[in-house]
Amino acid sequence: MSMKRGPDQFHDTFREKVASLIQAKQAGETVENAEPAPKPTGAVDLMEALRASVDRVRSPKDTKTEKSPRPHEPVAAPGRAARRSRRA
After folding, report:
1. How far apart are CA 3 and CA 6, in angstroms?
2. Which residues touch 54 (CB under 8 Å, ≥6 apart)?
3. Fewer Cβ close by (within 10 Å): the C or N end of the chain?
């Protein structure tokens, strides 16, 4: 679904707003300030959360947790172990 568009099909509203502000100031009109930035919503910054997660994984563990005596080993399906023992 590719559409060919030319430069004449784009409409630059930002440029129009800036031009109208300039004209208003030149005419001596009072120009309203922009709206203040919206207040934080409490949404999580995903990049900061990712960095914190990576830092936790890379840093040595200071908390004492119960450790397993050996690392987890992959468990084979029950049928596969039986087949392997017959071949040996």
Report:
1. 10
2. none
3. N
